[in-house]
Amino acid sequence: MPSRETVDQDAKLRSVLAQIAPGTALRDGLQRILRGSTGALVVLGVDKTVTSISSGGFTVDTEFTATRLRELAKMDGAVLCDRDATRILEAAVQLLPDPSIQTDEQGTRHRTADRVSRQTGLPVISVSKSMNIIALYLDGRRYVLEDSAAILSRANQALATLERYRLRLDEVTASLSALEIEDLVTIRDVGAVMQRHEMVRRIASEISGYVVELGIDGRLLSLQLEEFVAGTAEGQRLVIRDYMPGTARKTRNPDAVAQALAILDSTSLLDVSSVAAAMGLPSDLESLDSSVRPRGYRLLTKIPRLPEAVIEKLISHFGGLQKILAADVEELRDVEGVGETRARTIRENLSRIAESSFMERFV
Q: Is the pTM for the entire model greater than 0.70?
């Protein structure tokens, strides 16, 4: 399963990839160098460590432009920019990283880029004349920048998978709604919904990475992604709030449960027992078919213009969804903050939701 360190490294990588995505001045400059059949070594950031391993060169300290980067890269040595690549600080710098740092790279420029990145912790970009590639070195990893067409091809395949995942999520969520109304929910049913939520989240996260890499070329992909994942994050949070055991609520919040699901490996995610355990629910095989009752957050949220504060008061007053469903207008009216008009609205909407869920399941 991914560690917290790995998650942080992935986030850091995405941040740097956003800086060198198509449409940025830095990417334009790197592409100019590549088209000019020359090489380059670019360091994003200057600190004491970088200074200590630098020799020669000259100070530039000017605004970053793609043309300036291209011209300065014609000289031997590295180009040092600020961390955000908004200014070019030095050029023609000879970098002398610790030779004892292990690297699997071949070629002087790539070996230097890898060692400098490992020693300083800063992003280092290498443009290879012979291999005709742009490589990013960060946190001991090498990431080769690809052409937009290749990334889009993979992204579209992932998007098709996401569409199927979302359809299945909608199916199991509708089934859960019907089971909640009939008071027939089991831990297995809840686990199945949470599995699908996490699958959607993971494939969406992968596509988000493609969007970052594509820069301006990923605008359409970004819109499609937003459409497919709309409401899923909140939907997952509401299921957690509905079914997280009372004992777990004292020490964990929905975000902690979502994180526990996120760090499950692929095999564990397919195991309903592991999903139930991550939620704090009984996870032995016999318990998976045990009945559980929702508090009612998810279904009550479907009622238009019903404030969250009122939802909290309804759940606190009645104790769970089944008692709220059984309550008449007078009983609902007695809850603080509800009143006659809102009580009738709640009653009518709950009846509509119940009828709709029944029809979706059996028709």
A: yes
